[in-house]
Amino acid sequence: MKDDIRLLDLPLKPGDPPFSAWGYWGPEDEIGTLNWLSKDVVRQAAAEIVSGARFSLNWGLNMPTTAGFGRHECRLSHTIYQPGPMLALDEEVSFNTQRSSQWDGQRHFAYQKEQLFYNGVKLEEILSGSSTLGMQNWHKAGGLAGRAILLDYWSYTEAMGETYDAAQEAHAITFDNLMACLQYQQNLSSTPIIPRQGDFVLIRSGFTHCYQKLKADQERAIATVSAPITCGVEQDVRMLEWLWEHRIAAVGGDAPAWEVLPPTCKGSAGFLYHEVLIAGWGCPIAEYLWLEDLAEYCKREKRWTMFLSSCPLNVQGGVASPANLMAIL
Predict the structure, then answer these.
(1) Measuring CA to CA, how many Å separate 170 from each of 211, 227, 229, 285, 299?
(2) Would you identify the family this protein belongs to, as annotated (predicted)?
(3) How far apart are CA 9 and CA 320, in angstroms?
(4) This prediction's pTM
(5) Which domain holds residue 204?
(6) What is the CATH number of the domain that holds 262?
């Protein structure tokens, strides 16, 4: 039975990369953990809509000001023009899908040592013109919709009397502290915050909160440093196990990479989450999410679960997409 497969059973085939689940949903699968978004999962998630409050989780397309990770600048270009004699306007928008709030798709990151993408796809196949692992597969599956849990780690640390600079420090959010944050929120909440199959897990690190306070030279410094430095989740096998055992469909947060960089591996955990989640499980990662308004509402209402909906760009062979995320409570 597939449900009996645990993290320690991965990989499924000898020679596959560490913790990879290639073949779990079949050798031709192209949507990975989105397979856990069954009709029953989505229908049950709709029960999270109680007040009708809704929040866009999308940062402006012009943010952050400076592109990080050595990327081409590719600034947002927005042109409005009148195409003909009638009073009507058209527009053209161009941008890098790795800027602002985004989904990292299956084509975005590979296992670095093995040089293989999800389910063993090679770079040559992607660059040959094939649409394998492209964003269009998420649309064929019906997009992304389900229950989400917000782990407001930034507010938790404030409540604990701790401080750190989420925009300029490589602060490692440990597995133990995330579980403590979850328990802290559960103690305040009147409804259960128990992870279940198909959930999305969002982590508020405080990055966008702190980013807004940066001066121009500080903003450029964190984006142009030779080795990326960013706060995020510490690489820990226990975190992988938690995500896998709870059948989490996707993860996301307000930080630039979701995981801490440079990596600070707990114990013998020698991996990047981008490798295992994206290339190993086909699990989408959302970055640079705007969680400030949502977090404030959740804190006030003492409720951290919600219905989440996203319809990324339908680009044949697409690598990533603006998140297009909405939370409804």
Answers:
(1) 14, 11, 5, 19, 25
(2) Belongs to the Cyclase 1 superfamily.
(3) 30
(4) 0.93
(5) 2-66+97-328
(6) 3.50.30.50
